[in-house]
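REVIEWER CHECKLIST
Item 1: Sequence provided? yes
Item 2: Single chain? yes
Item 3: Sequence as submitted:
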Amino acid sequence: MPFPLAFEGLTIPGLRALGYVIASDLAAGGGTVRPDAPTIAWVVDLLGSLAPDERRDLLYTLLAYRSPATVGLGAQLVDVAVPELAWLVVAALKVHDLGLLLAPAPEGGTLEGLLATVAARHADLSAEEPRQLVLTALRSAGLPVEEARVLVRWADADEVLRWGDDLLAEGDPEVAAILEGGLARGEIAIAILKLFPDL
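Item 4: Structure as written out by the authors:
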């Protein structure tokens, strides 16, 4: 849908203005654009009317904000509506400072934990740099289950051994079960067997 965009009685001239409308609605607790509706509800509807490049640019705008609520909304939108844009979440995790990342996320935990969880679910972490970034953020946020899932899906054998030992030391049976499942991925099977010598 080309700009200017007519939506919910508003005429929005461009993506920057749309980002401002979204951030303002969030700051008001929702309801300023669509009465009695949380911001995420109407933004998900709006995303369907945008072209792919406009969706990308809007998510980039939201994830680049210095507002924890706006960055958090961007991550939630990637999670529920546009998972193919998860690379933008990885970029946000990389560029934002610790002060912002440690701010509360919309649904609990920290913003760092939310960004890392969405990246772990949807991003291509086959390259070492983004994988290490996400693993470090998951460790910092205290999310061992997601960390184990990243290891089993994306990590090499050395990483499995290095990160897996500490994870197992926490004694979480769900984490142990996920790591054991890594036996099915041949290239890390030997590392998994080293973690579980009694298997």
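Item 5: Key structural point noted by reviewer: The radius of gyration is 19 Å.
Item 6: Recommendation: ____
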